Amino acid sequence: QVQLVESGGGLVQAGGSLRLSCAASGGTFSSYRMGWFRQTPGKGREFVASINWSGTSTIYADSVKGRFTMSRDNAKNTVYLQMNSLKLEDTAVYYCAARVGESYSNWGQGTQVTVSS
User: What angle is formed at CA 69 by the lines to CA 65 and CA 75, rounded to 5 degrees?
Assistant: First the structure.
């Protein structure tokens, strides 16, 4: 069972940058596809980005394409989400998740990102 812990959230002005980290323990991290999701009050969890096991292939939601970059360091059992040109609508709780098998079944506790004007 893989455990995930996110960090790096905080308060940032619109146009600014943040880098989120997600540290994994247990399981076989380097074999999992990893994803970042976000959620705001009253809305469902939204896909943000994912990365394959080797870090050679990434997928992004249209809303973040060109502004966010997901990467991973398998030696450190960590994935990252570099967020640039942040907008007010990026405000959310951000979660990382591990795709074990056919679905994202392991989730972190989330980290709050707040973008102010």
Answer: 150
Pair type for strands 111-116 and 92-100? antiparallel
Rg of the chain taking only CA atoms, in angstroms: 13
pLDDT, one tens digit per residue, over 14-71 is 999 999 999 999 889 999 999 999 999 888 899 999 999 999 999 999 999 999 999 9
Please enumerate in sequence order all residues whose Cβ is within 8 A of that of 44, keeping only pairs 6 or more positions apart, or say none.
none
Report the b/e string of 51-61 with b at 16+ CB within 10 A: bebeeeeeebe
**Of residues 43, 94, 33, 42, the one with CA closest to residue 68:** 94
